[in-house]
What does this fold into?
Amino acid sequence: MKSLSYLNKYFFKYKWQLLLGILFTFGLNYLYVQMPVIVGSAVDTLEDNFDPENWLNIALTMGGIYIAFSLGKGILLFFQRQMIIKMSRYIEFDLKNEIYAHYQRLSYSFYKRNSTGDLMNRISEDVAKVRMYLGPGVMYTVNLVILFAFVLYFMLNTNIELTLYVLAPLPLMSFLIYKVSSTMNRQSEEVQREQSRISTIVQESFSGITVLKAYGGESRFESQFNTSSDSYLKKQMNLVKTNALFMPTITFLIGMSTVLTIYLGGVLSAEAQSTLSSGNILTFIFYVNMLTWPFASVGWVTSLVQRAAASQERINEFLQEQPEISNPTQEPFQFNGKISFNNVSYTYPNSGIQAIKNLSFTVEKGQTIAILGRTGSGKSSVINLVMRQFDPTEGSISIDDQPLSSINVEDFRNQTGVVPQEVFLFSDSIRNNIKFGLNEGEDRTDEELDEIMKVAHVYHNVTDFPDGLDTLLGERGVNLSGGQKQRLSICRALIRKPKFLILDDCLSAVDTETEEIILNNLKGQIQDNTTLIVSHRVSSIRYADKIIVLEDGEKIEEGSHEELLAKKGVYHEVYQKQLLEGEQTENKD
Ligand SMILES: Nc1ncnc2c1ncn2[C@@H]1O[C@H](COP(=O)(O)OP(=O)(O)OP(=O)(O)O)[C@@H](O)[C@H]1O
Ligand SMILES: [Mg+2]
It folds into this structure.
């Protein structure tokens, strides 16, 4: 339960709402406990001095008072809920914002360690469970305590012995309801888990429809779906059974307490010296009925609080997570253009793979450096290191001769344009997808966008779409070809006029001819900028000032295109092979 204490700061924030809520609860229960007294005294008055002339007046007056009290109670009940349930919704809203803001601060490695589903669950389902504690949990508890105190006071004032007898079974009822609700909660969690399994199957079968159709996987998915559905049905049926038990159990227990009250009340009032009237017994029956539901809710609230505590613990686990990379300083940083790696090694903590081994190189302002290497040789890892997505295991990286770990990394990233290997486009218009590259507060006109699209050689594609820049991408939008996506991704990097441009194999999906055009266009754009190009095609990188050949995370060659050719090493070999392949494809055309 300790985890829930995290929420106390929110109770404090909304203390007035909570206090008013408690005040209304007092008011409504005060009216509520008077109502049985009215009925009791009405019965006693009519029974003891029955007046054939006047009885209707008395009955109507008493009825009128009863209705007035009910009305008052109803109004206060409305305000009680307005205060407490609204408070719980406000806290839910704040908590979701807090979690989301925290997620945004966490580093790349956090997202590698935790699944998207898990991240989503903690911010939605877990928060919803916590909300049940904040709203109904708090409300029913406050209500029970106040009501019980009032009722107990009135009952003891009427008859102590009968009070003790009729209250005795209530704790047993709480316990029974607790057992039933715990079972219900467990079963509904099983149902939820099965539900999310079904959603995953369905979602994968839709998003992977191309592969599914090509491999004739329809029946495989169908049988997976059926198995899951069957299991879902069974679990749902179990839940329905327990659910069906819930209300009858309560009704039965309420009935039993009523019978007990009538019986014991009757026995007690029959005793010679008894002062217990029929009205008193009637009042007691009302009281017992008034208490049964709140006592039943003790069991329900207990299991609800347990669930909330478990959820809050999961939430706290993420909230306590500190970003591995945090901005060390707020001092503005102006990137001048020099980058150097000094004996950098990096091992991925989750896989234990040493992706970079003792790598050193330097790029001066305005230079273009290229990294060539086979798949898995560590090229993208170099980029992640230079962007400080994670820190080197050994060695250090310097930016303008200052350690990367000591500069304002947000500023540095804002001056860098990265075109990642895996293109990601948002379900939004082409215009907004490109403008995503802008830093806060910046804007560009459509003409400027056109210029950038011409550089990335995608202008003619976009103008071919009937909606041009407004064309929607994503699931319900147009499907772009791999090469078109890559070129839009280049636009996104160029629009921010970066001082440092990083291209991670971002021309792999375009033909060599288009590649040539884009690289030529880029040359005009990046004259003064430092550029890092990653590729496994020699054609993309031969104009670079410096080329590094990586193999298994190690630098095996370094030099310009000409120098490396003269060396007749690995680079030369790759060049010859690709030249040959190029000629073969050309001959085919
Ligand atoms: N997030 C990760 N967690 C664990 N290991 C990783 C991770 N990313 C990459 N690796 C491993 O690090 C090594 C280098 O990967 P990297 O992505 O840097 O290669 P690459 O040269 O960019 O390859 P490609 O040309 O295919 O893009 C690989 O063996 C890969 O399996
Ligand atoms: Mg890569």
User: Anything to note?
Assistant: Residues 503 and 533 are 5 Å apart (CA to CA). The beta strands are 339-347, 354-363, 368-373, 394-399, 402-403, 416-419, 500-504, 530-535, 546-551, 554-559. The longest strand covers residues 354-363. Residues 333-415+500-564 form a domain with the Rossmann fold fold (CATH 3.40.50.300).
